[in-house]
Amino acid sequence: MSSESLFQAPVPLAVALRPTTVDEVIGQDHVLGVGSPLRVLADPQREGPGTSVILWGPPGTGKTTLASAIARSSGRKFVELSAVTAGVKDVRDVMSDARIEGELSGRAPVLFLDEIHRFSKSQQDALLPGVENGLVVLIAATTENPSFSVISPLLSRSLLITLRPLEPDHIREVLERAVVDPRGLAGALQLSDDAREELVRLSTGDARKALTALEAAAGVAHAAGAATVEVEHVAQAVDRALVRYDASGDQHYDVISAFIKSVRGSDADAALHYLARMIEAGEDARFIARRLIILASEDIGLADPQALTLAVSAAQAIALIGMPEGRIPLAEVTVYLALAPKSNASYVAISEAQRDIREGKVGEVPEPLRDAHYPGASALGHGEGYRYPHNDAAGIVSQGYAPDTLRDAHYYRPVPRGLERELQERSRHIRDILRGSQD
């Protein structure tokens, strides 16, 4: 392919270079070994309906490629649907055609359903008869955890296969093939080592992203009359690495989880990495701020009461100034919370108190604490014997506040860190007074 024809290609480079057989697939060796289910499914000599599979993995790991290669290798007809555009009628039409195809060829066609997580329950239900009766070999692709996005009956009838992001060596192999393959650059342009490594870095394990960036960089080099794609051509074509992150998928949950755990674990640098990752991917700053407020309450608590104030202030700042400037208060509060002393004592305390309530440990409100302001309350003994703390020099009096059934309950247990070190001694002293041991 000449450089002229390259830039007039009817399909993107990533599509043109899609492997046509399983042997051409780069990466995913853990699911493509000899005798593996995918190899067996791709065997043209294999008789029978074939096992349906669900391919779960991040973008650019080869889900569509594997489905197409399996269909071609096995000699089965390949039918593709996208959950974004297909409806129940489309599924039923495919099943009707598949029945005819199976009767004529004796082999069930491969139905590749991309983004199955976008299918509703009723749409997924429409797939069940065809999968169960072997009318089609379903190969469904998803970037989200199938346990949450695929209905149980369909999941139980399919083999779940997890694909991994490609390793740097895999991406290098993809790029090197693209440079020489007749379907790709066909040797019309070379790729410098520095440019190749920059493409590997930018790809973040996504082969499609690497090829898209190569195609764009090759266009820049071609326009400049260069014979080699250099790192500056890559820089002009791709201004930043597109972070692999789906705001509604697993990456959304995995990255925010890693962010929170890094702050909780006091690693400010790791927390800033995940914060930057979310910001670059366009995550809602308000969502991040809300999680920081929760963390300040749950994981820092009274070890540093200022943490919650700062977290709330950051959320208010974002509401006032928006993004991208909002990233600055987000970074400030992230670092502060990461370095703050940690305590979940308040979180544990309220959780244990609620647990006791759910278990029926309620009890009657002590009479001295009951409302005595309405007519007839005094006759019932309400408020009788109540001791007013402000009348005591210490501001604390010996008095029972909890119901009798919870007299010995001890929910709040401060940790010896930050302000709670002081609260630990203070709460012990107060408890002694309340229970009368210092009367």
Largest sheet: 5 strands, parallel
**What overall geometry do the principal axes of the alpha carbons give?**
elongated
The CATH C-level name of the largest domain is: Alpha Beta
Biggest sheet, spatial arrangement of strands: 2-3-4-1-5
The counted number of beta strands is 7
Describe the structure.
The chain has 439 residues and is α/β, with parallel strands linked by helices. The chain folds into four domains: 28-162, Rossmann fold; 166-237, Orthogonal Bundle (Helicase, Ruva Protein, domain 3); 250-339, Zinc Finger, Delta Prime, domain 3 (Up-down Bundle); 345-434, DNA polymerase III clamp loader subunits, C-terminal domain (post-AAA+ oligomerization domain-like). It is built from 19 helices and seven strands. The strands form two sheets. The protein has a five-stranded parallel sheet, sandwiched between helices. Helix 5 (88-105) links the parallel strand 2 (78-82) and strand 3 (110-114). Helix 9 packs across helix 11 and helix 15 (285-300) packs parallel to helix 17 (327-339). The chain is elongated, with a radius of gyration of 32 Å. The model has no long low-confidence stretch (mean pLDDT 85).
Keywords for this entry:
439 residues, Rossmann fold, Helicase, Ruva Protein, domain 3, Zinc Finger, Delta Prime, domain 3, 5-stranded parallel β-sheet, two-stranded parallel sheet, 49% helix
